[in-house]
Structures are given as structure tokens and as C-alpha cells.
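Thought: the user wants the 3D structure for the chain below. I'll pass the sequence to the structure tool as-is, report back what it returns, then summarize two notable features.
Action: structure_tool
Action Input:
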Amino acid sequence: MSRGREKNYPGYQVGTSFLLVIFVVMCLVLLGVLSLSGALRDKGYGDRMAEKTSLYYAAVSEAQHRLGEIDRAIDGIDRQGKDYVEFLNDAVAAAAETDSGITVIQSGDTTVLAYETAITESQNLCVELEILDPEKGEGNYKIVKWQEASVSVWKEEEPLPVLLFE
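Observation:
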């Protein structure tokens, strides 16, 4: 009774094709998780940018409303028989009556009206208008500055102890 060689195989044989399928499934799951985390991060960034843009345009709308009030006040000035200096004084007084937040900057022959509109707690929209001579046909004012500016100043709390040489 010659038995010959018996082949002993385990009950479950794990072949290379099965290992390849497991590896591919693991790669697909990892790719899906990374794609989901990237999409959630992009959505959060998009929401923050939409909020910031909405606040900016609300501030622009308010600044344009204030500009319209100043323009109407300057248009309402009687210019008959007045020179440019008297017109400037009347224009500054009329603009100051429309809004208490207007700052007057005078340097030489130019008079600039400045005001700020809050965008966020840390940013303002700064507007500066130069009052022009209406007799020259240039209009009532020229917008000199329409700029977003930071209100808060960054302060370093303490230096990081990186590569300290003594």
C-alpha cells in the first residue's frame, strides 16, 4: 500500500488575487475618505469667503449711501457769488451735518472728507473724497481713496524657542 504523496492544503487558501482585491478595496476606501475630507474643507472655506464677501458688499452699500448723502448736501449749496474758499467752508459744514463720522483733512488748496464704514470687527472700509471746484466743471468731489483697512494690530505674544544659540 503505497500511499504516495498526499497534498495537505489548508481549508482556505489565500491567493495573490484575493490579496490584490483587498489592497484595491483599501486604496479605494482611503481615496474616498481623503476626497470627503477635502470636500468638507473646501465647503468650509467657501462658506467663510461667502460670508466675508457679503459683509464687504454690505459695507460698500453703506459707504455709497453715505456718499450719496454727502453729494446731495454739496449739491444743495448755493454757489451764487461765492469764491472757492467759501464754497469749501460751506461744503465741509454741509457734509458734517449729514454725518458725525466725517473727518476733514485740509492741506494747502485741497480739502478731503474722510469716513470709515465697518466691514468686520477687524476691518473697515476707508473712503476719502477731495472736494473740487464746481466752477471748473469737474464735479463736486473726486474719490481719492476707497480701501479696505485693518483695524486691529497683530501683537507677538512671546517668541518661540526655536534654535536658541547662547
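Final Answer: Structure generated. The beta strands are 103-107, 110-118, 123-131, 141-150. The longest helix spans residues 16-75.
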